[in-house]
Amino acid sequence: MQLKVYESLTLKVGLCLMLMLTSLAGRAAGIQLQNLRCEMLTDPLGIDVLNPRLSWEITSPARGLKQSAYRILVASQADKLEEGKADLWDSGKKNSDESQHVVYSGKQLKSKDKAYWKVIVWTNDGSTSSSGISRWSMGLLNPVDWRGRWIGLDRAFKWDDEGQWSRLSARYFRKEFDAKKTIKSASVYIMGMGMYELYINGAAIGNQVLAPVPTDYTKGVKYNVFDVTDCLKSGLNTIGTVLGNGRFYTMRQSYKPYKIKTFGYPKMLLNLELTYTDGTTETITTDDTWKVTADGPIRSNNEYDGEEYDATKEMPGWNRTGFDDTKWLKAEYVQEPGGMYEAQMTPNMRIMSTLKPVSIKYLKPGVYIMDMGQNMAGWIKMRVKGKRGTAVSLRFAETLQKDGELFLENMRDAKVNDLYILKGEGVETWQPSFVYHGFRYVEIKGYPGTPKVEDFEGEVIYDEMKTVGSFETSDRTINQVYNNAYWGILGNYKGMPVDCPQRNERQPWLGDRKTGAYGESFIFNNGRLYAKWLDDIQQAQKADGSIPDVAPAFWRYYGDNTTWPGTYIAVADMLLHQYGDVRSVERHYESMKKWIVYMSERYMEKDLMTKDKYGDWCVPPESKEMIHSRDPKRQTDGVLIATATFYDLLRKMENFASIVNQAEDASRYKVLAERLKVAFNDKFLDKTTFQYGNNTVTANLLPLYYDMVPADVKAKVFNNIEEKILVENKGHISTGVIGTQMLMRGLTENGRSDIAFKIATNRDYPSWGYMVENGATTIWELWNGNTASPKMNSQNHVMLLGDLVVWYYENLAGIKSADRSAFKQMVMKPTLPEGLNYVKSSYYSAYGRVVSNWTRNAKSFNWDVEVPVNTTAVISIPAKSGKDVKESGKSASGSKGVKFIKMEDGRAVFEIGSGQYKFTSNL
């Protein structure tokens, strides 16, 4: 048996985050702690929560294995823990199968304290095992713990331009200091706004890029922490930093100031904490003894427009000891950003993979077009050799025009252009530092000689997180759409979930992720990203309760709405269901309640929610050249959408209120929801035709999926959906962002997985397959994204995925958590639409790996299942009887770990514990 130990961390107000820690001890008592790099780019140092939650994962091939008890030991030093001295906390032996989110309940920890821990577990087979040692350490828990001052230069220089297309050069800072004693340990704490690169004695610290993650800097400022012990020496040392603009110095400084929030010029606060071998300490801080210049090689960096790098302006050795900085300026004290200092517990972005170009083609003299073969988000790393002063331009686009030129209209006014000026010293290698691009094609202009594919590499950038899901079927369309979803999702993880990575937008729209976050969680371990995003939403909330459509509120879109701001509640529900993150509910409950009250008091009329802003956004329009439909028959009533959505949100809040022990609130939500339900049916249900509203699929599907439809007419309402899809729409999708969020599950749960399968595998318009048929390698913003107006036809959006990815995993694969159990209990009931012959899938849950691989033919069904230790699953196998099901060649009922429960709807239902199983049945 192996025991993998990891830590589930929280922000100081209780936000749950999950984090793998590195083994310090290796093997202990026959159990090995998996030696994984921390998922967060910074070391697991500098958390700012007093009571982190500890979690661990047990791995074993044994069937039916469960934890029966645990004991957690926490000490202030590793050697103490090795001696069995838990001076911070000894939980004692707890008779419990709990292995997730166990709250640290030991001595109160202070700023910079270190904690080393291990867990001993007992299992139901009589085994006892101990993990290796892991650690965490505390950050700077209070603003007064920070030393020094914010420094920067609050002005532009003569080579900068602060017009509509702002150009502001990067700022380079350096500080030499003398470590007069032998260094035992050292940690650096940094807040570098808008983005930073950090060096000590010339060595880059960490492998993060575009750090830290973006926030509304007037509300919260994230700091990163690094262990830099090995980078320092006794005697003279040098710290160097580069500050880029990021979201702090806004991309368009003088453009629509009434809409776009700005924060000022780049600035920094840094503490380097030194501990010497004699026990004394010293702190190197930012102050006016630092030197700074803006006259370095990064002449401009603007997320929308690109980065300009002049290698002739490089300053060799600037971040090492002994550099002559006499011509540099003295750093100036500047105003702090205004937000609370917060430890960043989400991962930074990093280069997660690389792509080689598939071709470079000559276009015209001096101009070539490079094809990466995949729409990606990141940048190009280039090798080039030429004369000093030669300028090479790289311009980016998602598609090409018919004549082979870049198609740039859908970039709006983003210039998306990087420029590199050669220093002329042999082969030069360059990639930007403070921008990213969304692209497939690159225009190469001014390159000396003939560019070759081996001279370029695409570096794919997104938040560092594990890929936890795999999915493959016998259908090529489903497989390619899944691949497109994978690339689209990762391309839009940028310290927050953005809508697109390419044009002059790149905003964290709430509505795009209401169900999207749920589907994404099956592919990526996105729990910490979305927990952080809940903080962004909370910080964007107005005092009266209003929530914007974009958070952080870089755009001031406080128009009030139900569907977009309601994502706040939906994402908290996803974190609870998929990750068991109760603390996110606890942390955000009052803010969510405040929004519910705000909306109820202002926009409830006759028990209907009247406030809707976007309708069923982006339904397939009547003409492929249109962005939005103008046909009333295709549009769903906004009050219908808002009321049905608000009803669902009230039911979620009812559950949240129970979790946080607010019984009166729960009762109020329930009563209000019932009133909405009655008023909704009175207003929108036609008692003769059993149609809701104007009979769009969305109008009928929302109340049906949210269980608002009277039981005796559910079948008739669903008949209207079937008729609409199969007859009027000829088996095609007709929903937009709202309706698509429950379309595939709604059809399947009402017995028509065949319709869902047809929609999923269509390759003509409108469909996901139509995108594939027309060369898409990500998901489009519009169903007609290849023909609609360039004003809104991003080729890399995820909002139209709806519940497709959820359907892939929960229905086709049959990997589904029982209600809010975070996969401790699972319900595995694969959907078997005609035409689909196999599914191979896996998902790495908090408890471990879940596998569902099934194949079928006309006579038999074969299913390989794997269930993690300390969990159970109720599985449903198509069969004539329980006796017709075999496991590993013998009767399933007689197999270890398998218990027959019942026959239901042509399936044999069993309960299984942990282990690997091979089921077969005759059809």
From TrEMBL:
One of its GO terms (biological process) is carbohydrate metabolic process. Residues 814-890 form the Alpha-L-rhamnosidase C-terminal domain. GO terms for molecular function: alpha-L-rhamnosidase activity. InterPro entries: 6-hairpin_glycosidase_sf (IPR008928), 6hp_glycosidase-like_sf (IPR012341), Alpha_rhamnosid (IPR016007), Bac_rhamnosid6H (IPR035396), Bac_rhamnosid_C (IPR035398), Bac_rhamnosid_N (IPR013737), Ig-like_fold (IPR013783), Rhamnosid_concanavalin (IPR008902). The keyword Hydrolase applies. Its EC number is 3.2.1.40. It is an enzyme of class 3 (hydrolase). It holds the Pfam family Ig_Rha78A_N. Residues 467-812 form the Alpha-L-rhamnosidase six-hairpin glycosidase domain. Residues 181-352 form the Bacterial alpha-L-rhamnosidase N-terminal domain. The keyword Hydrolase applies. Keywords: Hydrolase. Residues 363-462 form the Alpha-L-rhamnosidase concanavalin-like domain. It catalyses: Hydrolysis of terminal non-reducing alpha-L-rhamnose residues in alpha-L-rhamnosides. SUPFAM superfamilies: Six-hairpin glycosidases (SSF48208). PANTHER family: ALPHA-RHAMNOSIDASE (EUROFUNG), ALPHA-RHAMNOSIDASE (EUROFUNG)-RELATED. This is alpha-L-rhamnosidase. It comes from Arcticibacter pallidicorallinus.
